[in-house]
Request: fold
Amino acid sequence: MTTLAFALAATIKHDGHGGIADLLSTQEEAAAWLIEHDQLIAQVLGADLGRFVLPNRAETLPNLREDLVRIRGAVRALFARAVAPGEPSTADAARLMSLQDALRMVNRAADRLGTTHLEWADEPVKRWAYRTEDPIELLVGAVGRSAIDFLVSPDRARLRACPAARCVKYFLQDDPRQTWCSPACGNRERVNRHYRKRTSG
Ligand SMILES: [Zn+2]
Reply:
């Protein structure tokens, strides 16, 4: 099962031509991403997602793209540290935020959500006692919370950076023998290796 922080980290992709494609290049793309992932946001914020009607207002939120991109940088820096040593995604290797900066950013973001309180109408429910009403701060806070929960969960041990030459993805290994993020990356690498062997031999 994917999580919000993981989905955000996946918005950097290989463009198929040796470069990096950013799926959050414009405000419109950022708004579309938000709408597409409202279920993952709701996993963190719960029913409050509706209260702040984030998806409906996505395009009108100032700084939506900038703030998502900033917290994404922190999440990817932490992912890079969580994978086997020395094997971060090639998209990040040369431009990683420092651990201290990434921790500060993620913790500060998560702080804005405040703590959870117990409410009891029909049945006991957990509800955030927010420190902000700002929808972007709540969204970025949800990403921060999601990153923290993921990194301290048993799932962290399955986090990998795909080693395919033209891939910059982090993925969760389903099976200890899984090397690539997808069958497409595996096939491409097998073809490349075969070709390299033939041309070098
Ligand atoms: Zn891959």
Q: What stands out?
A: Residues 162, 164, 167, 169, 180-182, 185 surround zinc ion (CB under 6 Å). The radius of gyration is 19 Å. The first helix runs from residue 4 to 9. The domain at 4-200 is CATH 1.10.3300 (Jann2411-like fold).
